[in-house]
Amino acid sequence: MSKLIIYFSRSGENYFSGEIKHAEKGNTEVIAEYIREFTGARMFKVEAKNEYPEDYAECGKIAKAEKESDARPELKEALRDISQYDEIFIGYPNWCGTLPMPMWTQLEQLDFTGKVVKPFVTHEGSGFGTSEDDLEKLCSGAVFKKGMAVLGKHIHDAKDFVKIWTEE
Ligand SMILES: Cc1cc2nc3c(=O)[nH]c(=O)nc-3n(C[C@H](O)[C@H](O)[C@H](O)COP(=O)(O)O)c2cc1C
Asked: What residue spans define the domains of the chain?
């Protein structure tokens, strides 16, 4: 079975248990790499053409405005065709209660009919928020499997948990 990971992740300042810290690699990317290790899936990173600021508060302002205006930020490069894949892991941080808007830009362009989708999210307490419902609309025709939510502070202890989830 051919597998793909479509994910968004931002390095830079983030909250970890109430404290702002700098991360060289985003939390979701850490989880995506575990999934690749266990499944051999190909990884595709969704990136907005205008990079989000390193500063947490500045990034928050932009993300909130994009969500409120239902924006579709332009991407550096879009994935066009997923026809060769059967199982697709879709990962992202919870941003303002749902997926970051660049994921909407990307997912709306793809045909998910008949694909198995396994969503995963990293977050600071809100879990998936509304994103699982939003994903069902964005990936219409897909067969959804149980999602996995990981708290940002737990990502480095989550490897066994991720392995079990990939095998479910
Ligand atoms: C713009 C922005 C908005 C966020 N909104 C939420 C939120 O609504 N709920 C939540 O639990 N965490 C929220 N977070 C925290 C992130 O979901 C969390 O730090 C995540 O692990 C970051 O993943 P990444 O490093 O892969 O980008 C937000 C973070 C940012 C930068």
From this structure: 3-167
pLDDT of residue 21: 86
Closest atom, ligand 1, to C-alpha of 151: 21
Q: Which residues line ligand 1 (CB under 6 A)?
A: 9-10, 14-15, 26-29, 56, 59-60, 63, 93-97, 122-126, 152
pTM for the full predicted model = 0.97
Give domain 3-167's CATH superfamily: Flavodoxin domain (3.40.50.360)
| CA-nearest residue, atom 29 of ligand 1 | 95
pLDDT higher than threshold 80 for residue 17: no
What whole-number distance in Å separates Cα of residue 10 and Cα of residue 29?
Answer: 8
Counting from 1 in the atom list of ligand 1, the atom nearest the Cα of 125 is 11
